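dumping this here so i dont lose it
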């Protein structure tokens, strides 16, 4: 599918995609969800996060990352001078798997084109994958998050060339406290990646206190807050 040129046209296409995905029944999760969780944030974001799937609270509210993991994501963003309004946040699956079980291969297969189209329309420079499912899907590699977190790579996703930057899912730090430092370290590299500067490797990156960043692009496009 062709890329859409202007910001206004991309936003209109994103609204159109939102409307289409809201009634998607392409996999069995349509039968158990409360509602589709399309994604939310800035339609012109330079930084997009892709998590795994909606959980209980997301399924209830229709907005991604509103539970405990979402609060931690907001805190990690604040540490680097960003907020939810600066970025776009979505998931591999748009509907909640029952009991928050792992996404299944057939569900990812059915849903992945929604995500690829979101990326084509938003045209982020950086896609930060949160956890194994998003990382493996978008990298096209079986390499797991333990191996690849904190290391960027340039990938072609549809018509978009993006910098893929795998990070642990924030939920990992809710269960394993030591994971918080790793997450903070990986988030601390984002400002340099956004600035287009060669960033130090994970072992060289300062764990904190990087300068706050890039100015957000536009704030008016708050998809998910329609
Ligand atoms: Fe459609 Fe994706 Fe929801 Fe399955 S998970 S019904 S493919 S939007």
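and the seq i came up w/
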């Amino acid at each position: 599918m062709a890329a859409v040129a202007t910001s206004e046209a991309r936003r209109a296409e994103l609204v159109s995609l939102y409307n289409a995905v809201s009634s998607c029944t392409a996999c069995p999760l349509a039968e158990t969800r409360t509602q589709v969780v399309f994604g939310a944030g800035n339609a012109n974001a330079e930084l997009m996060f892709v998590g795994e799937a909606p959980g209980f609270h997301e399924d209830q509210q229709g907005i991604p990352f509103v539970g405990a993991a979402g609060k931690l994501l907001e805190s990690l963003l604040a540490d680097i001078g960003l907020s939810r309004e600066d970025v776009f946040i979505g998931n591999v699956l748009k509907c909640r798997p029952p009991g928050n079980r792992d996404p299944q291969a057939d569900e990812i297969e059915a849903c992945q084109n929604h995500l690829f189209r979101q990326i084509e329309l938003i045209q982020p420079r950086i896609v930060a994958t949160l956890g194994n499912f998003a990382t493996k899907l978008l990298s096209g590699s079986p390499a797991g998050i333990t191996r690849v977190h904190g290391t960027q790579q340039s990938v072609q996703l549809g018509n978009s060339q993006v910098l893929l930057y795998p990070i642990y899912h924030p939920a990992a730090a809710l269960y394993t406290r030591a994971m918080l430092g790793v997450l903070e370290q990986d988030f601390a590299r984002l400002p340099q990646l956004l600035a287009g500067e060669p960033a130090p490797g994970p072992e060289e990156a300062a764990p904190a206190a990087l300068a706050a960043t890039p100015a957000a692009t536009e704030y008016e496009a708050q998809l998910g807050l329609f």
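The CA atoms of residues 10 and 98 lie 33 Å apart.
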